[in-house]
Amino acid sequence: MSASDGRGGAPGLGRRLEAWLPQIVVSPIFALSFFFVYCFIGWTIYISFTKSRMLPVYELAGLLQYERLWATPRWYVALENLFVFGGLFIVGCLVIGLVLAILLDQRIRAEGVLRTIYLYPMALSFIVTGTAWKWILNPGLGIERVAHGLGFENFKFDWLINPDMAIYTIVIAGIWQSSGYVMALFLAGLRSVDDEIIKAAAIDGAGPLRTYAGIVLPMLGPVFLSAIIILTHLAVKSFDLVIALTGGGPGYATDLPATFMYAYAFQRSELGMAAASAVMMLATIMAIMVPYLYSELRGGNR
Amino acid sequence: MPGVSLRNIWKRFGTTEVLKGISLDLEEGEFVVLVGPSGCGKSTLLNIVAGLETLSEGDVLIGDRVVNDVPPKDRNIAMVFQSYSLYPTKTVRKNITFGMEIRRVEKAHQDAALRSVSELLHIDPYLERKPGQLSGGQRQRVAMARALVRDPDVFLFDEPLSNLDAKLRIEMRTEIKKLHKRLEKSIIYVTHDQIEAMTLASRIAVMDAGHIRQFAPPEEIYESPADLFVASFIGSPPMNIVRGRVEQDDGIRITVENDGGPAIRFPVPEKFAAGASAYLGKDVDLGLRPETVTAEGGQTGSDLFAFDRPIELVEPTGPDTMLVFGLGGQEVIARVRPEDARPAGQQFRFVANMAKAKLFDPETGRRI
Amino acid sequence: MSGRTDDIVRPKGARQAVLRVLLFVILGLFAAYYLLPLFVMVSTSLKTLEEIRTGTLVSLPGTVTFEPWAKAWSAACVGVKCEGLKPYFWNSVLIAVPGVAISTFLGALAGYALTKWRFRGADVIFGLMLFGAFIPFQVILLPMARTLGLLGLAGTIPGLILVHVVYGLAFTTLFFRNFAVGVSDSIVQAAKIDGAGFFSIFFRILVPMAVPTFGVTVIWQFTQIWNDFLFGVAFTSSDSNPVTVALNNVVATSTGVKEYNVDMAAAILAGLPTLLVYVIAGRYFVRGLAAGAVKG
Predict the structure, then answer these.
(1) Is C269's Cβ below 8 Å from some Cβ in A?
(2) Can you say where in the cell this protein is located (chain B) (predicted)?
(3) Is residue C70 part of a domain?
(4) Interface contact C200-A180, CB threshold 8 A
């Protein structure tokens, strides 16, 4: 594999090959990526502008599928759920993550163990945790029975099968799964604050509350941004958790765009509409990710 | 009134002892510099005075008050940190007034205090900027302003100049000295730079391995170092130390053997004779500062002693030239006028001012 | 040693002591909240159905039975087939091992080539590849299904491996690029002067230095692939389902009595490999998560 291979026969050929080796190695990897990401996105976008139903047809039909999509009540349910779920999920994870990070930052002995406990849900599949939560939230045998056992005879907890409340069970499980991750992000941020700044605040007379609120948290602006971006990303992509916990039901009460797309693509054979909904998801993510990635990469090169 | 007293301070982290019984008295208005190599415990000691670290044993007094359990904010101290530690999200103005806001100082009073320190330190042009937009020197000034505005009993400085470039460092050094003249407040200042210590201090505490080796005014530290550590830590280039044997031969002499050359027998002046005679037949360490070893005619005095050694290396510094030569197996530096210097390899006649020589016990390191 | 802030002299007194106790109470409550589902899963999986019907969620099993575990492993019904999770568990292993290995190796090569042999366009290529990590996969589901069909890989394990490799590349490349950026260029230059070429620098210098990065990447990819559900459910058929899909089918199978204890045992079995990895190599796992937050 070295340049000297070419010394015997055609001089320079080996060396020229060597000079191009990095490009030669990267190009198939890049081509793979390019084909499976960009060509596929292109294909999906194209299909969203056709009349495709069961099978793809390549005749353009303008905005037909988008018109159909936006005339579908189920799509509105999915969007509304995304806002409710996304909003509560992001706020819940941020609040719990931040509180836990600040509490853990008090240099307590059990920190390592607690951190491990708070973060382990991230290692599990949403299907696994969804199965557990489904059992815990089971209307007859779950929390309701525990409450009855404690003497609250009239306690009723049927969110899982109540179309108006089912989406909140997904919020509960989602926050449980991801808040530890946000805690880890914030804790790393807190630990990166220069100790001398905290000492300076102590000399200025700021108590712990004032030190965090007035000095440390404002310094964590970038961590907040990262956390919000990641959580948004997780929320928009949420699929497994819904499937495992409610299957999108009751009815389609807990549909999210991700499950909507899947249902229309693989169960109802509405390729065009499925593609249109996927494009809407992509647009949402891109609107958030592209400026973020751009600024991150720029920042990194500086 | 507010001096600072440290009484037998110990600090342990688990089984490591960082401070081993430090006692120190600082009078009001004094400028004390804690100097020593890194890891000697000087920053820990400063943090203990500030209340940023607890002590394991002993007492810290500010004025007449024992402050061991008093939080930093109630000690009436101000501190300037090595990294300046300005609050990055606050403007310069807010950085300076933050402490006053917490102490609920009246707004009018805050403004007046802000105005006076920002004029004093020439930072008014950038009061509305964030620390990130300031140069190192400007940040340093803001950090000092933040400390000044507290009007504390004691100022604490933790290596405040070590992040500045050489030129700025000298400038700020002068500025700090002027400030001290003007405010007449007690200052404890930590540095590892012995020149900073010499120029600033009214008294220097030289620390090593959790002990104070010597606590004295700069001239005394330089002229009468208590032991080998202080002698070799203070001064640049450092004091030359060579080992020799004390012998009685036409007065008391110290004989230094040389490879490839005759032994040199340094006469011990009258004033050291009594101390040195106790070591007759034993080894001592002879300390000669570079400026006390010159060319012939380079210095005057009654206890000059001339000897010949070959020059090994010539190092011009501008005003002086350093001649390096071997003595008793050590490299020794002589400081000569540039016109007296000769090329390396030549035999040279050096003159040592024995009145300024120091003798040390090689075992204990104490000065004789 | 002096860079600590926990040693600052703080006011002492009853209020501080109360706050300290409160701190531990709150932290403990949160720990209970995070552990509750795991506890419920384990305890339910060890109960008999009878006990589940009479007891509650939080009660400990009176008589411990491993029956549900045995059933979940080898007899539970996935749809109409009643062979337990075992075949699907091995499917997941067969998917994860090559998937992790190939995507890690390619990502390492790409990350190295893109940073240490900076050719024109390397940054653009990296940017384009990185973007692939953040697309919602719904946008590629349809063309992928067709492509796998055309390749004759629809519903097969190699097909799913291909999918995981392709969409894992963005992350593995990111991890190795971040690593390689931190390696001094002069090391590569020195090796070039010594006569080492592209591959010998990679294998003999970069790879030995990158052991921790390999750890992070392997753990990240393993967790991603093992826990994947979307690709599994979209691109495999019943025989080639990964364990997550099978688990979901076990839970959703509605024939006969609902066996919650078997469901829970199945869930633990499906989660065990990643949980073990987390417990054993948690440090690398957290670093992977942090790198997943795109710190450039």
Answers:
(1) no
(2) Cell inner membrane
(3) no
(4) no
Subunits with 3+ C-beta pairs closer than 8 A to B: A, C
Distance of CA B338 to the CA centre of its chain: 29
pLDDT for position C296: 32
Task: Check whether A8 has a pLDDT greater than 70.
Answer: no
Residue in C closest to B83 by C-alpha: C3
Instruction: Return residues 54-93 of B near A (CB < 8 Å).
Output: 71-74, 77-79, 81-83, 85-90
pLDDT at A147 over 80: no
Angle between the N-to-C axes of helices C122-131 and A271-301, in degrees from 0 to 180, rounded to the nearest 10: 140
| Inter-chain touch A205–B82, beta carbons under 8 Å | no
User: Which token pair is B302?
Assistant: 């009654």
Percent of chain B at pLDDT > 90 equals 22
Q: What is the mean pLDDT of residues B50-76?
A: 88
Question: Rounded to a whole number, what is the largest CA-CA distance in chain C?
Answer: 76
Which residues of chain B are within 8 Å of residue C5 when distances are taken between CB atoms? 52
Final residue of a domain: which of C65, C96, C124?
Answer: C65
pLDDT of amino acid B203: 93
Phi-psi region of C84 (alpha: psi -120 to 50; beta: other; left: phi over 0): left
Q: What is the mean pLDDT of residues A110-132?
A: 89
Q: Are B355 and B302 in contact (CB under 8 A)?
A: yes
Asked if B81 and A205 come within 8 Å (Cβ–Cβ), the reply is: no
Nearest C-alpha of chain B: how many angstroms from C16? 13
- Which chain B residues are closer than 8 Å to A203 by Cβ? 50, 52, 72-73, 77-79, 99
Q: Which residues of B touch A299 (CB under 8 A)?
A: none
Which has more pLDDT, B271 or C2? Answer: B271
Least confident of A214-218, B114-118, B140-144, C76-80: C76-80
Q: Are B169 and B134 in contact (CB under 8 A)?
A: no
Number of domains in chain C: 2
pLDDT at C255 over 80: no
For chain B, domains (ranges, CATH) are: 4-233 (3.40.50.300), 240-360 (2.40.50.140)
| Same domain (yes/no): C121, C225 | yes
Q: What is the pLDDT of residues B31-56, one digit of tens each?
A: 999 999 888 889 999 999 998 888 89
Mutation site for C-interface testing, chosen from B52, B62, B159 by largest number of C Cβ within 10 Å: B52
Asked if residue C238 and residue C165 are part of one domain, the reply reads yes
Give the CA count within 13 Å in the CB-facing half-sphere of B63: 10
Most confidently modeled range among A178-187, B245-254, C44-53: A178-187
B297 pLDDT tier (thresholds 50, 70, 90): confident
Q: Which residues of C touch A299 (CB under 8 A)?
A: 296
Tokens representing residue A63 in the block: 């905005």
Instruction: Indicate the residue of C1, C9, C12 with minimum beta-carbon distance to B72.
Output: C9
Q: How many Å apart are CA C260 and CA A135, to the nearest integer?
A: 8
Contact C110 A146 (CB under 8 A): no
> Do C121 and C267 fall into the same domain?
yes
Q: What is the CA radius of gyration of chain C?
A: 24
pLDDT at A4 over 70: no
Nearest-CA distance from C157 to chain A in Å? 18
Please, how many CA atoms are within 13 Å of residue A135, restricted to the half-sphere of its CB? 32
Residue pair B196/B36 in contact (Cβ under 8 Å)? The answer is no
